[in-house]
Amino acid sequence: MKTVVWKSLSDTQQAKALERPAISESASITEAVEGVIKQVRTGGDAALKALTEKFDKVVPENIQVSQNEIDAAEARLGEEIKTALKQAYDNIACFHKAQKAEPLTVETMPGVVCELVTRPINRVGLYIPGGSAPLPSTVLMLGVPSQIAGCRKVVLCSPPPIADEILYVAKLCGIDEVYNLGGAQAVAAMAYGTETVSKVDKIFGPGNAFVTEAKRQVSNDHQGAAIDMPAGPSEVLVIADEDADADFVAADLLSQAEHGPDSQVVLVTPSPVLAEKVADAVKAQLKVLSRADIASQALGSSIIIIADSLTQCVAISNNYGPEHLIVQTKNPRELLPLLDNAGSIFLGAWSPESVGDYASGTNHVLPTYGYTRTYSSLGLADFSKRMTVQELSSDGLQALAPTVVAMANAEGLDAHRNAVTLRVEKLNNKK
Amino acid sequence: MKTVVWKSLSDTQQAKALERPAISESASITEAVEGVIKQVRTGGDAALKALTEKFDKVVPENIQVSQNEIDAAEARLGEEIKTALKQAYDNIACFHKAQKAEPLTVETMPGVVCELVTRPINRVGLYIPGGSAPLPSTVLMLGVPSQIAGCRKVVLCSPPPIADEILYVAKLCGIDEVYNLGGAQAVAAMAYGTETVSKVDKIFGPGNAFVTEAKRQVSNDHQGAAIDMPAGPSEVLVIADEDADADFVAADLLSQAEHGPDSQVVLVTPSPVLAEKVADAVKAQLKVLSRADIASQALGSSIIIIADSLTQCVAISNNYGPEHLIVQTKNPRELLPLLDNAGSIFLGAWSPESVGDYASGTNHVLPTYGYTRTYSSLGLADFSKRMTVQELSSDGLQALAPTVVAMANAEGLDAHRNAVTLRVEKLNNKK
């Protein structure tokens, strides 16, 4: 990890130090994904089978995973992992249930009642990546809120063969349909539907460059589907002072670094002593990791910043806007009111990122790549939508009429005015 | 207006009857907007002036509207419209203040505290269209929530000359910077910033095809800005039974139709008698409207649907997903729990759409074009973002450790496990 002293850098150098790697917009990926989406829309299930054979090198007997297969997966799993997944399920459910929006009713003027009501998004699609290791935790992060929101149809796609852990969590979360589908073809199938796969309204979940591009394309098409949020590489920023345990900080930096070679890892500290200790601890801990190769690559583009003060550390973090923000200082809670632009915040020595990745209860689907400035940590709200309601009494309408009439006149909209005056006249005639 | 009997239509004919007009994706608009954005990004203020001269045929002395000009606009306005705008401001503020999210704190397990905290989006840009009539109501709908959310910088762009009503409301809402800028160039200026115009994080507001395309383009660029929601033509669906007043229903249909020739207007009723009365009333009321031409065009593609029952009316509405949904039935509130996929709902005879367009308190920026299935009525949440926080005690971490360790093992992520085991070992060594 490279160490820099913040105040010794020019504005340009500071900006450069916090620059994220460019996400290459590859024309070949765009075109390939366009091709796959077109193939799925015209060819349906047959196209899905052909694409799965081509990309995943397997042809599952059925696109849809049967209940029997799900039950068999559950039977094969050991008790230890089942207990762990159930505990994580309970914590995530507890935190997301608490996010249920109560209906809001406000009388803005006598006789003018305005309400905000929430409805589940009816049909949602969850994408769970395959690859080197199964990600049952991501099934929890998407499946639990869809269940609590009350979405009527929940569809899950993951490239075959789907791990037992994923099928088990899908069952825990009451997911309605599970498909042996990965990549852009899975996204296309959920966005447009096929003979077998149900069309959904919104697609959630992480994926590789093809999945990300497919999500972007279907979300730009009115007939496609909405998506959760834009994607970028995973990242952590740690604020630590001289009180922090260097081993803990190093372990947290490494647990971000092992996610992938493009992971972003930043430590900001007012303590040069801690900076050095952490750098040493990272080297020592790295040696024994099974994914040391990946972590080393990520650390190559990572940085330790020595700041003047904790206040400056906070300013640097707010400017960077990290997905994960770990605060290991003497009084971490004191800093919370100052923290902004972060996906999820981990306060204190006993709150490593991995508890949030798995089981504390918070969601691990978070905005990355600076999107923390405008996007939220995934939550129940993303599986719902808010509608407004208004109901006026005849007195309420009469009281509000002069306001509406004056504004309609100012905007030159006669019919808007008439809809009010016509009613008021009828009321006056009745009197 | 064309009248159809729902049960006499085939599935395909039913789908066709509710089909929205295709939004033409014009390659020439895409290219023109790309050109404008590029010009603004490279040319800054000079480019803005040149583009304003080209498209708006005026060259304001300054891009930014001065405080003196705003004060002068206020002084020129009559008391009646100022009183109306203030009343609308109060009602909208009242309803949006009630949407403030309380911080949420949940102990998911003993010693594992999870929180949801809300922060304002720091810098927001509001686009207010110019054209035939000024839209001070849209300034209220965007300006009030940005003020209540506590956004640190609020920028407003509107094509010159900007109406006094717009400047007055901008002052009411405490908007920080107002610019004489319209079209794609205004969106580009807010998304990327220039010497004079502040860059913002998120852009809100309606506009023509060029503005909509510019919003789409900057929202697809990571260096650009987020946007409020996808755009489409405005629309209303009215559910009315034989108890409804045909004049009221006709007035509501017309106040939607006068918005623009592409406005969508739908009446669904179980009563053929009412259907006929409304059709007649529409013809009669249309004659006296100043925007009768526009309304007539919109009515050309509008439809009256005769359904079997109110239940079927609700099903048709939920399937269509209207921006505005007006319910004029004997017991409108009874239907509310069944209603889904609507932007804003107007219950009963005394709640015409124009009260929500202006002054009841609800927001008039609503999802259109079927986006009601996944998008929400604009509200305070859109000017904020949610971050999660977790803080574990040492006991909390020890209790959660076996869960995290088992899941990290299942996902093959050593460093995730180490970040927990290393802490637990230190705790055990201390004992």
UniProtKB/TrEMBL annotation, chains A, B:
SUPFAM superfamilies: ALDH-like (SSF53720). GO terms for cellular component: cytosol. Pfam families: Histidinol_dh. The active site is at residues 323-324. One of its GO terms (molecular function) is zinc ion binding. Its cofactor is Zn(2+). Keywords: Amino-acid biosynthesis, Histidine biosynthesis, Metal-binding, NAD, Oxidoreductase, Zinc. Substrate binds at residues 234, 256, 259, 324, 357, 411, 416. Coiled coil: none annotated. It catalyses: L-histidinol + 2 NAD(+) + H2O = L-histidine + 2 NADH + 3 H(+). It is an enzyme of class 1 (oxidoreductase). Its EC number is 1.1.1.23. Pathway: Amino-acid biosynthesis; L-histidine biosynthesis; L-histidine from 5-phospho-alpha-D-ribose 1-diphosphate: step 9/9. GO terms for biological process: L-histidine biosynthetic process. NAD(+) binds at residues 127, 185, 208. InterPro entries: Ald_DH/histidinol_DH, Histidinol_DH_CS, Histidinol_DH_monofunct, Hstdl_DH. Binds 1 zinc ion per subunit. Zn(2+) binds at residues 256, 259, 357, 416. Belongs to the histidinol dehydrogenase family. Catalyzes the sequential NAD-dependent oxidations of L-histidinol to L-histidinaldehyde and then to L-histidine. This is Histidinol dehydrogenase.
